[in-house]
């Protein structure tokens, strides 16, 4: 299984940015942890602060990946362009957030990405990413053809 993991704006500052909300792990540490726990899966990890770059990555890797795990950062709340790119990619997608966006400022409650994702996983810190990979595995197990 191939999984494309994309992190959006400001997530390169994990580990120093609002630790009380986002935790103490850097993004590199989170990515290392994911790779370590799921050795049989091929991952490509990207982070960008630019909407257009995220869209280009979705286009570029749409045929390579079986799944997309995306933490769009604040783009989750307003980027119809990323929403459309996820849909156009045809990828099975999961939206991930470290924090519980429903329990923070009102503008964070809305996700425009949610409806093009199989699931939104939030509020568990870096474990949100681990749960996302577990979801991919169990989805594939339950939906694999018996032929
Ligand atoms: C976030 C939540 C977003 O509202 C915020 O803009 C982020 C991080 C999260 O992982 O909790 O950058 O996506």
Based on the model shown, name its key terms:
binds 1,3,4-trihydroxy-5-OXO-cyclohexanecarboxylic acid; 147 residues; 5-stranded parallel beta sheet; 6 helices; alpha/beta; Rossmann fold
Provide the list of bound ligands, each named once: 1,3,4-trihydroxy-5-OXO-cyclohexanecarboxylic acid
In the CATH scheme, the class would be Alpha Beta
Specify the overall morphology: globular
Kindly identify the CATH topology.
Rossmann fold
N-to-C series of helices and strands: EHHEHEHEHEH
Low-confidence stretches: none
Detailed description of the structure:
Helices cover 38% and strands 18% of the residues. Strand 3 (67-71), helix 4 (80-89) and strand 4 (92-97) form a beta-alpha-beta unit. The model has no long low-confidence stretch (mean pLDDT 97). The chain has a single domain (2-146), classed as Dehydroquinase, class II (Rossmann fold), CATH 3.40.50.9100. The protein is built from six helices and five strands; from the N terminus they run βααβαβαβαβα. Helix 3 (51-60) packs parallel to helix 4. It has a five-stranded parallel beta sheet, with helices on one face. The chain has helices at 19-22, 27-37, 51-60, 80-89, 106-109, 127-143, and strands spanning 2-7, 42-47, 67-71, 92-97, 119-122. With 147 residues, it is α/β, with parallel strands linked by helices. The two termini are 19 Å apart. It is globular, with a radius of gyration of 14 Å. The structure holds 1,3,4-trihydroxy-5-OXO-cyclohexanecarboxylic acid.
